[in-house]
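Researcher: Sequence recovery benchmark, item below. Answer with residues only.
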């Protein structure tokens, strides 16, 4: 973990999840100041470990500022940070739909990383897409990676517009998987299973398949083939899902809708 003075703006679920990961990886608690008007249940255990909490921006200069507030709060919450920053202070934002240009308009010129984590970050199993502006060199990118990978892998993209595509795939992606589990459970009920049993089977199947996919070196397509016996039950189901690329086309349509909405939000 990097050795830097960090100001975390926002101690909600996502900000606290990242902070907990930093502490687990060895960052000294006294290096972090959290600015949040209130102390919620996710933040309190971290304060108990020695993290400093302030209801407003404190005096002093920080090496890194991480923005973990809701996008609609940015205009009011971010400008006071200027008093705690140097020109070289790295800004890392996980505020959805907030462009680097919007952040620079609030804070002035800084190395800025725009990142899109997803909700499995809350249990350390997330993935984050990131893009850095022209002021971000290798040192800044390495520092941002060290912070963001506390909740899972970090994948860098070469253009800021691709963060909207990341949002469509992984940012919104957990909701697609949760809906898949809902649909599987409902279909199980239709086949005669009790609702609670159908849901348990669906939840554990989705979770187990995801873990297998992470641990295996095989591509998802090969894992699918591994479980598909010729003329068996799985093949019968896949013939429905894959007929005329039905599911693939539906997923592409859904992700385009998510990407387009992300672009709209980024434009304000």
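Model:
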């Amino acid at each position: 973990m990097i050795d830097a003075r960090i100001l975390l703006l926002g101690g909600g679920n996502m900000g606290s999840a990242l902070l907990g990961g930093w502490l687990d990886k060895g960052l000294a608690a006294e290096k972090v100041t959290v600015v949040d008007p209130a102390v919620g249940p996710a933040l309190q255990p971290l304060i108990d470990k020695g993290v400093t909490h302030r209801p407003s921006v404190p005096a002093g200069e920080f090496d890194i500022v991480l923005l973990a507030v809701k996008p609609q709060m940015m205009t009011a919450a971010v400008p006071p940070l200027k008093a705690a920053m140097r020109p070289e202070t790295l800004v890392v934002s996980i505020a959805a739909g907030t462009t680097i240009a919007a952040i620079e308009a609030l804070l002035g010129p800084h190395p800025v990383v725009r990142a899109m984590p997803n909700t499995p970050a809350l249990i350390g199993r997330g993935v984050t897409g990131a893009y850095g502006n022209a002021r971000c060199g290798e040192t800044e990118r390495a520092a941002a990676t060290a912070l963001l990978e506390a909740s899972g892998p970090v994948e860098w993209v070469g253009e800021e517009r691709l963060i909207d595509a990341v949002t469509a795939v992984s940012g919104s992606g957990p909701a697609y998987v949760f809906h898949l589990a809902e649909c599987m459970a409902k279909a199980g009920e239709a086949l005669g299973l009790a609702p609670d049993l159908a849901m348990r089977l669906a939840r554990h199947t989705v979770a187990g398949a995801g873990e297998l996919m992470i641990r295996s070196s095989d591509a998802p397509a090969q894992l699918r083939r591994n479980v598909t016996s010729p003329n068996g039950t799985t093949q019968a189901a896949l013939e429905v899902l894959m007929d005329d690329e039905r599911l693939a086309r539906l997923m592409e349509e859904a992700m385009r809708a998510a990407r387009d909405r992300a672009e709209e939000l980024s434009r304000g």
